[in-house]
């Protein structure tokens, strides 16, 4: 028995469905400005497309209502990581999500301790955000990316796994 259509408009308003020859089985969604891009395998028929898009949009909705991390939450997380991972060495001025970070995961203004984390990371696992936050925190007391820097940055929980996640996301996620 077929499910009744939930909407006569397809795709839903604010959603762009992109067929990708590189995608073979998985479906990916991400926020791009005010819109949501959903990438699906090119081979999906109309029924599979609709089912996959509805499923991932429902998942995004559940995640955004249950896991919305505010700037204040991000700052609290940075303070906790500073204490637990970096022995309190970082000088934190502010920590905020940044919508204009399209080519980098985070940034740090050393003189003020202001840290910005790309809002593309809002929907990634916590350990990935933690690794990026720790990376930027380390910049508040060690400039550059020398061996000493990495000695501290790699203290982040699951740092190596987070690096792998970010490499894959950068290569295949867009």
Automatic annotation (TrEMBL):
Residue ranges of every copy of the YgjP-like metallopeptidase domain listed in the record: 34-166
Protein's recorded name: YgjP-like metallopeptidase domain-containing protein
Pfam families, alphabetized: YgjP-like
Domain of life the protein comes from: Bacteria
